[in-house]
Design a protein that fits this description.
By secondary structure, this protein is an alpha/beta fold. The chain has seven helices and six strands, in the order βαβαββαβαβααα. It folds into two domains: about 120 residues, NAD(P)-binding Rossmann-like Domain (Rossmann fold); about 60 residues, no CATH class. It is about 35% helix and about 15% strand.
């Protein structure tokens, strides 16, 4: 069996989850390159998982020995990684959301269509047994067709500054809401349309890190 060459761009938090999973697929996957803007992170990932190449340059993940590129960088930089990968003819797995803004996400989609390769986004609910049971109950008519979808979630999010910045990660609301929107579309079909949508969010900062009153 020919192994798929996989390179990973961004070696921080979520990348470690993917690296653990990829490491279990050594019969099918060869880890080719670990890329991170912080060289120490790239070298640490390479040493831990036996990856021969560690670099801060995206180009080093786009060689002929790479078939698939994993994009695990901050949300607002996804297009900077995914588009060169598609332009190089690679298959791309990109963490969600696809990017921070719709125009940048559309640029990624355009590059994917031009490449004609496989593109995937990390919508894990599509593979979660509990969410899939919920979907089957709806599609099988067991509980009828819902008229209202109400999703309540609370999360501090990861301890990453970019994640909490509106122009970089969008915070836990954006990062979580995209899961709900995707699964609703996956369940009811791309032609489904809601007649009304509303959202509310609140930020609660622990007193220990709250700025002093001035």
């Amino acid at each position: 069996m020919t192994k798929l060459g996989v390179s990973i761009i961004g070696c921080g938090g979520i990348a470690q989850v993917h690296l653990v999973a990829l490491d279990k697929l050594r019969d099918e996957v060869k880890l080719v390159a670990a890329i991170d803007i912080v060289p120490e992170k790239a070298h640490a990932a390479a040493e831990k998982y036996g990856i021969s190449r560690a670099s801060a340059k995206i180009e080093d993940a786009l060689g002929t020995d790479t078939d698939v590129v994993f994009v695990c960088t901050p949300t607002n930089t996804h297009n900077l990684c995914a588009i060169p990968a598609f332009n190089a003819g690679k298959h791309v797995f990109c963490e969600k959301p696809l990017d921070r803004t719709l125009p940048k996400a559309e640029e990624i989609v355009s590059a994917w269509k031009r490449a004609g390769t496989v593109g995937a986004v990390g919508f894990v609910r599509r593979y979660d047994e509990e969410w899939l049971l919920f979907r089957s109950l709806i599609q099988g008519g067991t509980i009828g067709r819902p008229l209202l979808w109400q999703d309540i979630a609370a999360s501090a999010g990861p301890e990453l500054q970019w994640f909490k910045m509106d122009d970089e990660g969008g915070g836990p609301f954006l990062d979580g809401a995209i899961h709900t929107i995707d699964f609703a579309m996956y369940t009811f079909g791309p032609s489904s349309r809601s007649t009304r949508m509303a959202a509310h969010s609140a930020r609660r900062i622990p007193p220990s890190i709250r700025a002093p009153h001035v």
